[in-house]
Design brief:
alpha/beta; Cobalt-precorrin-4 Transmethylase, domain 1; 3 domains; seven-stranded mixed sheet; five-stranded parallel sheet; 19 strands; 29% helix; protein methyltransferase activity; methyltransferase; Cbl_synth_MTase_CbiT; transferase
Length: 413
């Protein structure tokens, strides 16, 4: 028997434990767990450690005691599935720990409603911010949620309604593993009004059959699919330019992206689609532009876009360090924006600048050069086919320079 045994336990307590798990508890001299788990063992005479707000210090205590004691830690369900197991393993070392899992609450929930879950996306909102999860919904037809008192099933449903995400069937499974466990079925609208849900719950969403066509991995949306400033229709990055610029940014699922001079927000929206586990900061000075970006964020359900109303470079000074920076507009401060962005950029990150006017092309080139940045430049000339009576002609878009660079892993300037 190893120095620390982590035992998964359900709401049914001792009844659901295996003989192996019960033996580990009986042999231990220290028992740790949440209050409700410890209450299942009133007869235990050794030292008890309550896992509550002081998780980190409690694990330090477990690490100290396991040098001369056998420690058993009680954890909900599977300790290595959104549980405390990861923290304990990191502190003590896997070679000193044995894990004895029980069915997780998520496994119990899917079993309760009789739906397979090997293809489900699991999202934990327990102790986490809600912002960003609506964007993740786009890519999945079946989702299980761990919730908490703030991010309750009703609060989640209200948030989904704000973004028009209502084509789902919701199942709320409560008090799983106990004698009073239940599973109830809701529409999103019904769930948003529900007020009698137990704090011990798991939420499952199943997308309606009529809405199961998932989006393309790489967005390729026409300008007409975005709200934009009228009559300033030019203040939106054309879709062909958008695709090449996004490719040049090399966005990862967890990237932090800055879109400076966001205009109508088309690059922000599509960057958020790619960085679905990250965040996109859309920086724009024009109040009308801010309203349009808000409209596009809502209509395209990209709730991981954070809108910053202000002028760069001042507005980007306190933003989280980016992995990708896109500069689409500069209001005359292009050199300062490039310099500030590059300095804040994480090592290995990418910066991409779109320049249309000869002045901006010259300024971007000279700024990269003066900073000693190894820049890549392409000149993009695109013509689109346009109908002319029974014929097809070409209509040219404005030529555009796309500057891009990678910040070295080892900075030299």
């Amino acid at each position: 028997m190893k120095a620390v045994v982590v035992v998964g336990i359900g709401d049914d307590g001792c009844v659901g434990l295996s003989s192996l798990a019960m033996g580990a508890i009986a042999k231990s001299t220290v028992l740790a767990g949440g209050s409700r788990h410890l209450d299942f063992f009133p007869q235990f005479e050794g030292e008890r450690i309550v896992l509550k707000e002081n998780i980190s210090s409690a694990i330090d205590r477990i690490a100290e005691l396991c040098q001369e004691n056998t420690v058993c830690v009680l954890a909900s369900g599977d300790p290595l599935f959104y549980g405390i197991g990861k923290m304990i393993r990191k502190k003590i070392g896997a070679e000193h720990i044995e894990f004895l899992p029980a069915p997780s609450s998520m496994q119990r929930a899917f079993s309760k409603i009789g739906i397979n879950w090997e293809d489900a996306k699991i999202i934990s909102l327990h102790g986490r911010k809600m912002r960003g999860f609506v964007n993740k919904l786009k890519f999945h037809n079946k989702i299980g949620f761990f919730t908490d008192a703030s991010n309750s099933p009703s609060a989640i449903a209200k948030y989904m309604k704000k973004y028009g995400e209502e084509k789902w069937t919701a199942y709320v499974c409560e008090n799983l593993g106990s004698a009073g466990e239940t599973a109830r079925k809701f529409t999103i609208s019904e769930l948003s009004e529900a007020s009698d849900i137990s704090d011990l719950n798991v939420l499952i969403l199943i997308r309606d059959e009529s809405d199961k066509r998932l989006p393309a991995t790489v967005p390729y949306l026409d300008e007409m699919q975005y709200a934009k400033r009228i009559p300033k229709k030019g203040l939106i990055t054309k879709k062909e330019v958008r695709v090449l610029s996004l490719a040049a940014l090399e966005i990862r699922p967890n990237s932090i992206v800055w879109d400076i001079g966001a205009g109508s927000g088309s690059v922000s929206v599509e960057a958020a689609h790619l960085a679905y586990d990250g965040e996109v900061y859309a920086v724009e000075i024009d109040p009308e532009g801010i309203e349009i970006i808000e409209e596009n964020v809502l209509s395209h359900k990209t709730d991981n876009v954070i809108i910053i109303h202000g002028r760069a470079p001042e507005a980007i000074a306190d933003l989280p360090a980016p992995d990708c920076v896109f500069v689409g507009g500069s209001k005359g401060s292009l050199a300062e924006i490039i310099e500030t962005s590059y300095r804040k950029l994480n090592p290995g990150g990418r910066i991409v600048v779109n320049a249309i006017t000869l002045d901006n092309v010259s300024e971007a080139y000279s700024t990269f050069k003066s900073l000693g940045i190894d820049q890549e430049v392409i000149l993009m000339n695109i013509s689109r086919g346009q109908k002319l009576a029974d014929y097809l002609r070409y209509e040219a878009l404005n030529p555009i320079h796309i500057f891009s660079a990678t910040k070295p892993l080892q900075e030299t300037i």
